[in-house]
Design brief:
Layout (H helix, E strand, L loop, with lengths): L16 E7 L3 E9 L5 E10 L3 E2 L2 E2 L2 H19 L5 E6 L5 E10 L7 H12 L7 E13 L2 E4 L9 E12 H13 L3 E7 H9 L2 H6 L1 E6 L4 E7 L2 E8 L3 H11 L4 H11 L12 E5 L9 E5 H26 L2 H4 L2 E5 L8 H9 L2 E4 L5 E2 L11 H12 L8 H4 L5 H12 L1
The chain binds adenosine-5'-triphosphate and magnesium ion (MG).
């Protein structure tokens, strides 16, 4: 069932080349890679641009987005010495939401066959969503036989009713469509769409974490996204529309300094938690509108940390609440992996550990060859994970735009189906 044991065969990528496009709130990046043996990939080219026209992970200005996507892809193509037509793209805008659905079929023979499993999965596939949202993923996360759950592979087992639990992730139809348009305007076809926290988890978690249960938190510029893995599957995701850009804006407002300077101060002197030495260390703060005259204030570093810390606390409090509400907090156990550009402030891990009350480590892309120090950092976990999703083929039901476009709600369909079939 899991990430490793997936048997589903997908079309081989053209010439063994795969390309990933991460459309983030602060940067757009494109990874072009060659698929090597044993499902690993080697980077051939990387393109990286400051994001324009993207807010909270969603395209808000098509022209601006087209320009930066086009430039990132072109840069990666030049480095790779190859052109690409298809990309795997991330979905972080459009508020992706997780749903859990069950479908059940009766087993005609003495034991469950491959055919029965397919029937159960097909029932789950036919579940549909509201017209303003699209299914991005449908992941079978477990089977049940006659109500006994926790069965990984029911084939060959005895039972009268076969149930399947499917983790469905939907996102707003508008955000999905705009990504497709943005890609099309750069002459790219979207091979598949993967929600950002899923990709980041695939890139950062080690196999044991995915099996035993762990959460990956991707702290980006405009969003903080969460994924929970257990028994090798993605079981839940969520997205909070707050990230590192909010920290920067708080600094700009709090110290009346230009945003670009606030960003620089954050990365040079910022910290997630206060220390006693912060009172003694003084830092320069150029004032808004006074840049030419070179006038600046000097403030203790503790001023800066007192602005940063509450915002990060807010983010981790929200993560904790969402995890608790999800009902998956237990599955996570004590293991949390932080990634994304915004986890790089000193002491962020310690703060997360305090608020989440979990064992926290920092994560960066694993299992990808040819990434240098810069592009192997936590801001590139999503892009790396998109490549891994393509080559490792996690166990998922195919979702085409067509099926996803149908009109009745998933819940309605499930209850109708159960009423008709039980
Ligand atoms: N060295 C650093 N220290 C602290 N913060 C940093 C550092 N480098 C980058 N950041 C912050 O990381 C954030 C960008 O992270 P990332 O590149 O993961 O976001 P994104 O993918 O563009 O956005 P999103 O995932 O929200 O759509 C910015 O807010 C930036 O200020
Ligand atoms: Mg991101």
């Amino acid at each position: 069932m899991g990430f490793n044991s997936a048997k589903k065969q997908k079309r081989a990528p053209r010439g063994g080349i795969v390309a990933a496009l991460d459309v983030g709130s602060t940067k757009v990046c494109c990874f072009i890679a060659r698929v090597e043996d044993a499902g690993s990939v080697r980077i051939l080219g990387i393109g990286h641009q400051i994001a324009t026209g993207v807010r909270t992970g969603a395209i808000v200005d098509m022209e601006a987005a087209e320009t930066c996507i086009g430039a990132a892809v072109h840069q990666a193509e030049q480095q790779a010495g190859d052109t690409i037509r298809e990309v795997i793209v991330n979905m972080s805008g459009g508020f992706p939401v997780s749903h859990s659905f069950n479908a059940e079929v009766s087993v005609p023979g003495p034991e469950v066959t491959e055919h029965d499993v397919h029937r159960a999965l097909n029932h789950a596939r036919s579940l549909q969503v509201a017209p303003d949202s699209r299914i991005v993923h449908a992941i079978p996360v477990g089977f049940a036989l006659d109500g006994n759950r926790g069965i990984r592979d029911p084939k060959g087992m005895y039972g009268e009713r076969l149930g399947v639990n499917v983790h469905v992730i939907t996102a707003s139809a508008g955000a999905v469509r705009n990504l497709q348009i943005g890609a099309a305007r750069c002459h790219l076809e979207i091979d598949s769409m993967v929600v950002s926290p899923y990709a980041s988890g695939l890139a950062c978690l080690v196999e044991d974490e995915m099996e035993l249960g762990a959460a990956c938190i991707d702290m980006g510029g405009g969003t903080t996204t969460i994924s929970v893995f257990c028994e090798g599957n993605l079981v839940w995701t969520d997205c909070i529309p707050v990230g590192g850009s909010h920290v920067t804006n708080d600094i700009a407002r709090g110290l009346t300094t230009p945003v670009a300077h606030a960003e620089r101060m954050k990365t040079l002197h910022g910290s997630a938690m206060a220390t006693a030495a912060d009172e003694r260390e003084m830092i320069d703060v150029p004032q808004v509108g006074e840049e030419e005259r070179g006038t600046s204030n000097s403030v203790p570093k503790s001023f800066l940390v007192r602005i940063i810390q509450p915002r990060l606390e807010e983010i981790f409090e929200l993560v904790r609440q969402r995890l608790e509400q999800s009902g998956h907090a237990k599955l996570v156990g004590r293991r949390v992996v932080l990634t994304g550009g915004a986890c790089q402030l000193p002491n962020t891990r310690e703060l997360a550990q305090l608020i989440l009350d979990k064992q926290v480590r920092l994560g960066r892309p694993l299992r990808i060859a040819g990434l240098n120090e810069t592009h192997g950092g936590p801001a590139y976990s999503t892009a790396a994970g998109l490549l891994l999703h393509a080559v490792r083929n996690p166990n998922e039901l195919p979702v085409s735009g067509h099926e996803a476009a149908a009109s009745s709600g998933i819940l309605g369909r499930v209850s109708l189906w159960l009423r008709e079939n039980l």
